């Protein structure tokens, strides 16, 4: 993930727009060493961004754990030294405690799902907390997942709301072959409402069925019908680490979820020494 220096500056300015009043009153001018330690097992993420923050603050990076690596509680994530360690402190800690929660949740959710379906993928929605997209998506990738959609520009995903303005499902069924010929390099993903709707979409030859909030038994039936025609199936809507195994057992090819973005925050200890 590429971060511009403008983005790095914005992160710093949000926390310290002018100066650190406490540091000024204590007249602290000494250099220091800052160490970030995870208090829980986690999947490392955000270190590429933390390193760029450190460079911007003219700190020397002493240690950087590799993003995507599993580390046990008590291990170092990152260490740097120089004059501006107090500025890095809370900016980096806030990033870590959000990003690590996302990466670790995705990792654990994937592990649960793959106990029953070793080829299943965990995909995250574009419903990220505003202004956290890059941090969140990098955390998803480091946790072993992938974004379902990054923007509306690069993928085709048909929802009921599009069809209501397009002119209805019958018009869509009639024109599907022509529509598909306009974008032969793209997959057509369509959200199905129920079993009968799924059957019709399978009949016209869509590429991927997305099932939103359908029960497990209906999902199993649709998966069987779709796979007979080499059509992939995604389950979405309310799926999280507590129920992902049931959907994995149903045989779907991918799970779409928003849950990782709202996982309980990680716990990162920060030690600053002279």
From TrEMBL:
Coiled coil as a keyword of this entry, yes or no, is no
State the Pfam families in the record: QRPTase_C (PF01729), QRPTase_N (PF02749)
GO CC, sorted alphabetically, is:
cytoplasm
Q: Tell me which residues make up the Quinolinate phosphoribosyl transferase C-terminal domain.
A: 102-259
Q: Name one GO biological process term.
A: quinolinate catabolic process
Q: Is Aminoacyl-tRNA synthetase among this UniProt entry's keywords?
A: no
Q: Per UniProt, what is one GO molecular function of this protein?
A: nicotinate-nucleotide diphosphorylase (carboxylating) activity
Which residue ranges does the record assign to the Quinolinate phosphoribosyl transferase N-terminal domain? 20-98
Matches recorded under NCBIfam families? modD
What's the family? Belongs to the NadC/ModD family.
Q: What is this protein called?
A: Putative pyrophosphorylase ModD
Annotated source species: Nautilia profundicola (strain ATCC BAA-1463 / DSM 18972 / AmH)
């Amino acid at each position: 993930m590429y971060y511009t220096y403008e983005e790095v500056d914005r992160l710093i300015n949000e926390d310290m727009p002018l100066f650190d009043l406490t540091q000024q009153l204590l007249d602290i001018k000494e250099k220091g060493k800052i160490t970030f330690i995870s208090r829980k097992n986690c999947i490392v993420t955000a270190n590429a961004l933390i390193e760029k923050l450190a460079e911007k603050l003219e700190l020397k990076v002493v240690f950087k754990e590799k993003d995507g690596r599993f580390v046990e509680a008590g291990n170092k994530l990152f260490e740097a030294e120089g004059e501006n360690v107090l500025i890095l402190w809370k900016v980096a800690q806030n990033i870590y405690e959000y990003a690590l929660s996302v990466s670790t949740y995705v990792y654990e959710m994937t592990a649960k799902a793959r106990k029953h379906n070793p080829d299943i993928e965990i995909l995250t929605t574009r419903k990220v907390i505003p202004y956290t997209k890059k941090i969140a998506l990098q955390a998803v990738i480091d946790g072993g997942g992938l974004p379902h959609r990054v923007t509306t520009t690069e993928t085709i995903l048909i929802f009921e709301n599009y069809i209501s303005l397009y002119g209805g499902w019958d018009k869509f069924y009639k024109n599907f072959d022509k529509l598909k010929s306009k974008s032969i390099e793209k997959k057509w993903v369509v959200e199905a409402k129920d079993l009968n709707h799924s059957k019709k979409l399978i009949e016209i030859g869509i590429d991927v069925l997305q099932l939103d909030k359908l029960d497990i038994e209906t999902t199993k039936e649709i998966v069987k019908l779709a796979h007979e025609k080499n059509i992939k199936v995604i389950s979405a809507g309310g799926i999280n680490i507590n129920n992902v195994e049931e959907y994995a057992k149903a045989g779907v090819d991918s799970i779409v979820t928003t849950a990782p973005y709202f996982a309980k925050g990680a716990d990162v200890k920060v030690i600053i020494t002279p």
